[in-house]
Amino acid sequence: MKSGLLLIISIVLFFFSIVFSLEIGAVSIPLISVMVKLFHPGNDVYSIIIWQLRMPRILLAAIVGASLTVSGAVMQGLFRNPLADPYVTGTASGAALGATISMFFGFFYISIFFLPLFAFVGALLTTLIVLLISSISGSLKSENMLLAGIGTSIFLSAFVSLLLYLLGKDLLTVFYWLMGSFSGATWTEVYIMFFVAIPTIAIIGIMSLDLDPMMLGEDHAYSLGIDVKKVRVIFFILASLITGLSVAFSGIIGFVGLVIPHIVRILIGPKNRHLIASAIFIGASYMVIADTISRSISIIEELPVGIVTSMIGVPVFLFLLVRERNYWG
Fold first, then answer.
1. Domains: count for the chain
2. 101-110 long-range contacts, Cβ below 8 Å, gap at least 24?
């Protein structure tokens, strides 16, 4: 009952976050006009602002928020570590390196789609490298994958820093992208994210029953007939896929996959199927609201959304950390 109630509340919250985001901006749109233009769009100014400027950005932010949240929930369950998030596996660093390479060699200026393409390839290759490194010892244990991901992330971040140093005049462009932004979102990006991320999240939701026993230990999962090695690799690849795709279209946005699963777990418990169902809409709502704040807080130039999520996420995370410490203490 508790999980069902939270799911209903999270869906309602998601709807209101979309309406709120459509209203707020450099041009404020009255609520009644938003509701009318949602169902009866035309060629007027409000319709153009809603359907060509704000709606693609809102939907892209929502899908990215849901993807990062689900990925964080999977990583925390997979590694049995509450501090795990989509970025400890090195996937985000690989995507950042790929995007930086596209800018360094000028591919970004040929077509804007080279940036997400290079970022996605970088994320995919990094995932394969982490799996390869962690399997050298002969077993794909959670500890090996976590350590391999952290080491790879640090190594790739050094290359990103080197390229940023060499870029010179284009440094601000790359640096701004790395801080996260949905500026310039298009319907093409929304379609790509939707048709890749949503089915991936659905597969994770269906397989989430196998994740519950793994959180209690590998021996327990083996005793229930679960192929731990196979399931772990599948979860790792799926989570890395949606993380890499999110970074490709939005840059690096931290603390979403770390904080939101924690909050949902506190509210309804650790059962992953219930957790993921509610976390999808809560993470999407959180990202939409954070992006609305980032583009509305200044009339001169919008703030990178990664700064907003970090400023909100760090205090919440520290509060959760103290709460858990006091609980177990």
1. 1
2. 101/163, 103/167, 103/170, 103/173, 103/174, 104/163, 104/166, 104/167
